[in-house]
Amino acid sequence: MGEAGFGWRYGHLPLHGLSLQYVAGPSQAAPPRAPPGSTWRETLALWRSQREPATKTLLWEKTDQGERYRSHLALYRTAAGHLFKIDCEGRGSFEYRPEGIGVFWEEGTGPEHYLQTLGVPMWLELHGVPCIHANAVAGPGGAIGLIAPSRTGKTTLTAALIERGLQAMTDDMLALYRDGQGGYQVFPGWPQLRMWPDMAARLAPQGVEALPRVHERFEKRVVDLEKDNKKRFRHRAESLRGLYLLDRLVADHAEVTIRRLGSGEALLCLLQNSMLADAYRPLGLERQRLAALADLLKQVPVYKVRYPGGPKGLEGIAGLLIEGTAASVTL
Fold this sequence. Notes:
2 domains; alpha+beta; Phosphoenolpyruvate Carboxykinase, domain 3; eight-stranded mixed sheet; globular; seven-stranded mixed sheet; 6 helices
């Protein structure tokens, strides 16, 4: 089975440092290839599974009743590794084995959506690469990460930065790779952003209605950043220069302020914005992950940015963050 068996728009591209290899089953996974260095770090084999493992032990589960939909996630230990079951707008599972990931999908929103936000983060965390909820954008001197809860301005700010010349790198998931030289780097996700219509219209002049929906029941759309060759996406790895915790204020007259967080506050910020919530302890990853994040904080600064809502506040924070991606500027 090749890539055509999956039919994913960007399945031929690396994803968060992983070069995806589509195979018929775990026994067909080829030996890892040597990475080119600038676009991916490891090879990940993917195959379609016909069923889930019959024998499994529950390790962790979480139910979230959000504004728009209910989601239920569950992690199991299996004889060969782990199983991650997802029941949300899409329903299926990812089976983790030493050879790669088996994809078993039943209905709804397809696995490519959940691979980006849950499937790959789980694989990376199991292999020692911490992952956080964040967008990444790149400028001339490297990349920065934007951390914020859903619907609090992260996507709006990302769009504003792209309009001002920066390039997107990741959408809602940031893998924190050591670069082998004492620092950290960001590898690109797929060249798309998932946005609500008011924001999508700013980056999609062809009209929002022409854009595919993220989930069939909701208006959120997928914006193709490759369309019209506008160079809005950075396809190579970049050094991580800083992480920014966004705090958008309701008042539109407040000043933009930026403050570097101490190590304790910064660690709490990263833990609160981890991709797998509180699943790390039952997975046996908590201690090594804390050590990895503590090491990260010795190399990468974390800032808290408070800025007012409205166009003026957006302009002010965008200017500061653009400076933050310049090679000669340290905030």
